[in-house]
Specification:
single chain; alpha/beta; Rossmann fold; globular
Length: about 280
């Protein structure tokens, strides 16, 4: 079934043996990186059904606790969750020693898998590296969440930049209390897919790549719209987020069929049950 689901089985085994932390006590996000498998040729052909399931999900209002979980590495830099994202950063740095890896897209199969949480926290811990200039770009022009997670109030954003209504440098905001900079989304355009697939978007990515040491792109879910594939093809690689015990296997397979598997750097297993006490947290 793939390494992602092997990890899920291991979590289930540990839970049955009574060694895992109960979900109510586990960190909000505990990512574990697993190398993606080579394509196995499976094509479930359930995109329509998955899309219908996605559209049927009801929007819920986030409370302060939910928002804070998305920036836990900033609020609690010594937490277990922050250390897990440092581990992810270290693995990406090791890959970067062998190939260019300045621009990284973060996506998932469906909404609600934790891709924004992963993108925000990875960007935060990456910006903690001495001498490293890091930018987080919100590419979800339909349902942006980065500015909310980081408490930003942008006057202009990516949509205005792509529509040539605002200068690029005027849309970038520095997050208070950190070295992280953010290109957020302010307005919701009528043609988000066309803007993200435009030559202007390509030019913006190239310009940013010449100014920052690392750029993290928070990209829409893969199965809901074409934006994930469009943006990921402009980057050096992508991270695929899977929520433990939630993401259907067929959704993962379907999304990897849409994306170029050769660009997938790894899979972030989000919400996995772990025994954090072993590490002193």
């Amino acid at each position: 079934m793939g390494k992602v689901y092997d990890a899920l089985r291991r979590a289930e085994t540990a839970r049955s043996a009574g060694t895992a932390t109960p979900r109510s006590m586990a960190p909000a996000t505990s990512p574990h990186v697993e190398r993606p498998l080579a394509p196995d040729g499976r094509r479930p052909g359930r995109l329509a059904r998955l899309g219908a399931r996605l559209r049927s999900r009801k929007e819920t209002r986030e409370d302060a606790t939910a928002i804070n979980k998305r920036r836990l590495s900033l609020l609690q830099p010594d937490s277990y969750v922050a250390e897990q994202f440092r581990t992810l950063r270290a693995r990406l740095d090791a890959m970067a020693a062998e190939r260019p890896l300045r621009t990284i897209a973060v996506t998932s199969a469906l909404a609600g898998e934790g891709k924004t949480t992963a993108a925000v926290n990875l960007a935060i811990v990456s910006s903690m590296s001495v001498g490293r200039r890091v930018l987080l770009v919100d590419c979800d022009l339909r349902r942006p969440n980065v500015h909310t997670a980081l408490g930003l109030r942008p006057e202009v954003g990516l949509a205005e930049v792509l529509a040539n209504e605002a200068p690029l440098d005027g849309a970038i905001i520095k997050v208070e209390g950190s070295n992280l900079e953010v290109l957020p989304v302010r307005g919701s355009p009528r043609n988000p897919s066309e803007l993200l697939g435009s030559e202007r978007m390509r030019a913006v990515v190239q310009e940013l790549a010449s100014s920052y040491d690392q750029i993290i792109f928070d990209v829409p879910p893969t199965l809901s719209m074409p934006d994930a594939k469009t943006v990921s093809e402009l980057t050096d690689g992508l991270l695929f987020v899977v929520r433990a015990d939630v993401t259907p296997e067929e959704a993962v397979q379907e999304a990897l069929d849409v994306l170029d598997r050769r660009r997938v750097l790894g899979v972030v297993l989000n919400g996995a049950e772990t025994d954090a006490q072993r590490y002193g947290y």
